[in-house]
Specification:
Number of strands: 3
Strand order of the largest sheet: 1-3-2
Helix content: 40-55%
Strand content: 5-15%
Distance between the termini: 59 Å
Order of helices and strands: HHEHHHEEHHHH
Shape: elongated
Largest sheet: 3 strands, antiparallel
Number of domains: 2
Structural class: mainly alpha
CATH topology of the largest domain: Arc Repressor Mutant, subunit A
Number of helices: 9
Length: 206
């Protein structure tokens, strides 16, 4: 018998879990009820995802009845406040050729740091294309996030603001070792020219 035909007391209940750090690090940053609702709903939607990407778009939020009842202006204000107070991360991704606002939790103890990689790219290089988004997600699976942050920092310091340059830094550290003394993961060999080959090669900044 489908769940919808069962008495409410017998229906299956799905649960999501939030780490202690969500309540100790994220919740104290929240300033009002609307902001709290938005942050909790972002957490709810992200934790229900079974696979990447671990973020939600503004359109996703607006499509849910609970968020829609707030009104678009209130929702925008609550999201902006949550980002300003550090409870949410915001980035803009090029999804199917259209720039979209995406949000994720700042606490990454329960989710991968993909959105953080996206934010690094957007802040230091520019708009993210679908091809670049796939490369970023692959990189965060292959390398420690600290390496990725340091590779971006090195590229910016040298004014080499391109994903190709950053990828080469990561590949070099993986094959030759890194001064920080971190243990290397079992990293598969990546074709050094994979980012500039194929039909999208002209889109990669050199």
């Amino acid at each position: 018998m489908p769940d919808r035909q069962l008495p409410s007391s017998q229906r299956k209940t799905d649960f999501i879990s939030l780490p202690d750090s969500f309540f100790t690090q994220v919740v104290p940053k929240i300033q009002d009820l609307a902001e709290l609702k938005v942050v909790l709903y972002v957490a709810y939607l992200i934790l229900r995802k079974q696979e990447r990407p671990y973020f939600v778009t503004y359109k996703e939020l607006l499509s849910h009845a609970l968020m829609a009842t707030m009104g678009e202006e209130t929702l925008r204000q609550a999201l902006n406040s949550a980002v300003e107070h550090g409870a949410l991360l915001h980035s803009t991704l090029n999804i199917n050729g259209v720039p979209e606002d995406v949000y994720s939790l700042t606490d990454d103890s329960h989710q991968p740091s993909a959105i953080n990689i996206f934010a690094l790219y957007e802040q230091n290089i520019g708009m993210i294309t679908p091809m670049i988004a796939e490369e970023l997600k692959e990189a965060e699976e292959l390398y420690p996030f600290q390496w990725i942050e340091e590779a971006f920092k090195e590229a910016v310091t040298l004014n080499k603001r391109s994903w190709r340059y950053i990828a080469r830094i990561l590949e070099r550290w993986a094959s030759e070792g890194k001064d920080s003394g971190e243990h290397r993961r079992n990293i598969k060999k990546i074709d050094p020219d994979k980012y500039i080959k194929g039909q999208y090669g002209h889109m990669v900044r050199r």
